[in-house]
Amino acid sequence: MSKIIEVRIPKYPECWTSCGNCGGEVVVDDILVLPGDRVARDDTLIVLETGKVALDIPAPNAGRVLELFVTAGDKPVEGMIFLTLEVGQG
Question: For the whole model, what pTM was predicted?
Answer without folding.
Answer: 0.86
